[in-house]
Amino acid sequence: MHLAINNPFYVVLLICHVGIGLIGFGSNAMAGWTARDAAHLGPSESVRRFFDGKISLAQWCVILVPVFGISLLVVRDAADISQIWFLAAVTIWVITLGLLTARGWPAQRKLGALLASAPEVGAVGGSDVEIHSQGLIVLRTQQVVVVLYLVAFYLMLFKP
Q: Residue 80 has what pLDDT?
């Protein structure tokens, strides 16, 4: 199949691919920013609401990015699959998913559990050091994920 770039079906797939990427990686970036608040400000009410011990559906959207990306290749130009930019972008996606599932999301779940059992802001508790530590793990992981996403986005947009 070889659809033109102005074909409505191709455009819808492209919007889904970019939109899912923005939702998935954007929500993971938001987790990093909120983790920074947890690490530096402690267990505020907004931080507790954000980190409820679960990974949001929006964060899981990163898994769908290559589904729509590969669909675009199939309907447009499957020859791109052998291009360096494509292989680099897929490699970056695999690395980011590995970072999220092995490091970021487990730390986020643990941070949620720590926040749920932590005393109110200002009270000194034994978990303050752990909250700070887990918050920094989430923050640093999400920072790397966002940078990798921007590199992959650049590769796909400009196809060097």
A: 76
